[in-house]
Amino acid sequence: MDLSYRIAIRYFFSKNKRSFISLIARIAMAGVAVGTMAMVVVLSVFNGMEDLNRKIFKTFDADVKITPVTGKRFKVTDQLIADIRSVEGVKQVTQVVEDNALARYGNQQIYIRLKGVDNTFEVQKQLDTALIEGSLKLYGPNGTPYAIISEGIRNALSISLEDIITPLEVLYPKLDTKVLNLTSPEAFKQLALRPGGIFFIENRYDDYVIAPVALADSLMQYRGARSALEIVVAPGYKEKRVSDSIGQKLGGNYVVKDRDSLNSDLLRAIKMEKLFVAVTLSLIILVAAINIFFSLSMLAIEKKNDVSMLYSLGAEPSLIRKIFLAEGAIVALSGAIVGLFGGVMLCWLQIKYGFVSMGMSTSLVDAYPVKLIWGDILYTGVIVVIITVLVSYIPARRAADAGLILRV
């Protein structure tokens, strides 16, 4: 072991060390430990929230989505579908018609987001984890069209799946009509659907009603046009790479985005919040570590005779600096190790047992999401090392200079 560390360890565990200096050192250790543990836990919570949001997006949003550059609809041809399917990594293409509409059930009505999908939707089984009642079928055995309804719409309209008499009526304004009175039934096209399934993800998707694309097309008078094409990416392929390949294949006439790009604002906000919290907690650790500065300064005063003796024995100023730097490192790293271990254990317990609830119900998780990333733990350790060097260097240099003065 290096001589500077041997002396620093002896100073750290010395029974003759004055109680006040020892108390400050222990406070510094506790402060670093608490700050380190808080950083590990908070960064892991942000990782968990980001992971949870990606799971939520995956439950409803497509791996890759193609929309028109301008307007709400575009013409879909067999050649376009063939071009998309020729791209490596494309597993399935779903045609989508989506727009706002009015839903009526019994004597109640509400504005909804009507999403028409083709029969590939049933094969995807994308909403399986979010289904809370009924099934995800679009047509019954006798050709009866079904609607898959969000929990928010079900609650707003008091829809019962057991009621086979009352239909869910969807209304959409007629195009190219001369009727000026929008309260007149003649101003709307109507579509009758039977509620077949209820899903719940989160409030963001609580206004959706999913129906067969052919009926939604007829209701909204799209005449074969589509709002979007949703792509399912084959296992083993990255959504971003497939999205870029489709964009290159189709040219600039379409907007092609992968799932993360579709939700880029929210994911960017989470990353920015994580960055600001990491900086804030780093400053808190720095404030806690200032106690190391005071404890080392007073230790340098207490050990000035020892420092002078070391100089008399031929010690160089660099050795004195190393001793006090090592002393600061022992105090800080002891707190950091305790903090890292405590933070990892808290995260593991939350992952394993879910002690802290989110306080709201979701179809995916009940407890607060936590995800440990070793890169964050490494970042925390590096921050503690940098702070230790910063707060220990000045007392170490002063101790070396004071020893030189005493020797002279």
From TrEMBL:
The keyword Plastid does not apply. It holds the Pfam family MacB_PCD. It is a multi-pass membrane protein. Its main location: membrane. Residues 281-400 form the ABC3 transporter permease C-terminal domain. Coiled coil: none annotated. It comes from the Bacteria. The chain crosses the membrane at residues 20-46, 275-301, 329-351, 372-394. InterPro entries: ABC3_permease_C, Lipoprotein-release_system, MacB_PCD. Belongs to the ABC-4 integral membrane protein family. LolC/E subfamily. PANTHER family: LIPOPROTEIN-RELEASING SYSTEM TRANSMEMBRANE PROTEIN LOLE. This is Lipoprotein-releasing system permease protein. It comes from Dyadobacter arcticus.
